[in-house]
Amino acid sequence: MAQVSSKNVDPRSGFCKSNSIFYSKRKPIPLPQNHSLDVTAYISSRPHHGKTAFIDATTGRQITFSELWRAVDSVATCLSDMGIRKGHVILLLSPNSIFFPVVCLAVMSLGAIITTTNPLNTPREIAKQIADSKPVLAFTIKELIPKLAGSSLPIVLLDDPQNITPEAKFLTTLQEMMNKEPNGSRVRDRVNQDDTATLLYSSGTTGASKGVVSSHRNLIAMIQTIVERFNLEGSTRNVHLYGSNVSYLWPSSVCYGPTRIRINDRGSVQVRYARDAIVDFKIPRNELASRATNTRSYDKRRGSVKVKKYPTVKILQGYGLTESTGIGASTDSLEESRRYGTAGMLSPSMEAKIVDPDSGEALPVNRTGELWLRGPSIMKGYFSNEEATASTLDSEGWLRTGDLCYIDEDGFIFVVDRLKELIKYKGYQVPPAELEALLLTHPEISDTAVIPISLIDICFISDFRNKEVGQYPMAYIVRKAGSDLSATAVMDFVASQVAPYKRVRRVAFVAAIPKNPSGKILRKDLIKLATSKL
Question: What is the spatial distance between Cα 332 and Cα 266, in angstroms, rounded to a whole number?
Fold first, then answer.
C-alpha cells in the first residue's frame, strides 16, 4: 500500500479513511525492474513448463514452445527485412487462430504496434480504424481480404493461398515467413516498458470507438496478474479454452506454459466446441473466466445445464476494460464466486475510488458512484485524442471507468450500470440494467434493452409539459416464440414492481436486440431507431 499507513486502512474492505482510496487486499504483483524490456523478451525469458503451447481444437494442429519461439524469430526477421520498425502499426484482421500469438509477439519484439479489428466488423468500420491508426501492413485471411478493399495496405496471408481469387493481392504468407531462417543480426530498435505495444479499439457502445494505447509495461502487469490469479507458475498442464476476445488472454499462458486450446468462435456453437474439446483433449481442469458485467449475455438455463455436466468446473467472474488492459477486479475462488452479483475484489496492485458523479466527492463503502481505477495496467491514453484522454485519465493516473459501482464492507465490487446510460427522470437516476434484469424474469420475454427517451421525443405522454421530467425509460422487447405479449402488459408488469419514477413509459417489439461482437447492447443504435420512428 504505497505511502499509506496500514493503520488507516480497514483490513476488511481495503478502504483508507485518510484519502478515501480502496486498496487491493490481494498480494501485490511482482514487476520487472529492467526498464529496457519489451513484452516479448519478458515472456520468452520466463521458464516454460510442458511442451505444447497451442492446440487448434478444430484442426488438431499443435505448436510446441520451441516451434513457437522459432516462428516468432523468423517472422520478426521478415518484418525487419520489410522495413518494419519501432512505432509502425500493424493491423491484424483474423478470426481466432493459434498463429495470433506468433504475429503479435513478432511485431512487439520490434517495438512495432499491434492493432486488431474484429472480423465481424463491416468494411466501413474497418476503414475508419485504418484511417485512424494508419497501419503500414495487414495480416489477414483470404476470406477477409475484400474487407480491406480500397485501403491499399500490403497484405500477409495467414492461411493457405490455394483457390484465392486473382484480384486478391498479397505480399507473402505467414507460413513462408515462418519458414525463413531467423537472423540474429536484424535491425533492433531499443524498446522499453513505456513504449506502446498495442492499439486496441474500444467497443464504442455509447459513442465513437477510440484507440486505446497500451504499453509493454501494461501488458507485463496484465500477464503477471493473470499468472498469479490462476497459479500458473510451475504448472505443467493447465489447459484453457478460448473463443472470442482473446487479445488479453493468450500472453499469460505463453509466459508459463499451460496449453491453450483454440475453439470455434462463432457465437452459440462455441458451447458445443468447448464440450467436444474437453472430451477430446482430456482436459483435467478447465477454468472459465467471465468478465461480463452484463448478465443479459449469459443464458442461465443453458449455463446451469453445462455446469451440472462438469461439476469440477470453476466459474470465476472478472471485471476489466480495454483501458485497463483487461484487469480490474475478479473472483479468484469458489467461495468468492458465491457472493451473488459481485464483479470480485480489486486485482493485485490496483487502487480504486468511488466518486460521486455530481460533486466529485470520493465515497466510502456501500455508496454508489463512478468507479475510478489506478494501477500498473492502466492505459497510456487514447490514440491521437487528447480531449478524450483528458476526460478519462486525470493527472494522478486515475481512470474514470464510466461504470456506476459500489464496494461493500468486504471489499467486493458491484457494478450497478454505465454512468452514460443512466436515465434521468425528474432528478432521479434510473439504471437500465435494473429494468432489463426485471423484464428478463417475465416468462414471455427472451431479450430486452432499455433506453432513455427525451422529453421532446415523447410529447404525447400526459405530463410532457413538466420540464423537470427530462427522460423516460423505453423498453425494446424480444418476445418468446408464440407470445402475443402487448406493450400495455409489459408496462404493467414493470409498474407493479418498481417505484413510479422507474416505470417504463414506452415499449417496442423487435426481432433481436442489436449487440456488438462481445455481447454489449448497442443502445445508441436503439436510440436512433426510437427517435426516427417518433
Answer: 28
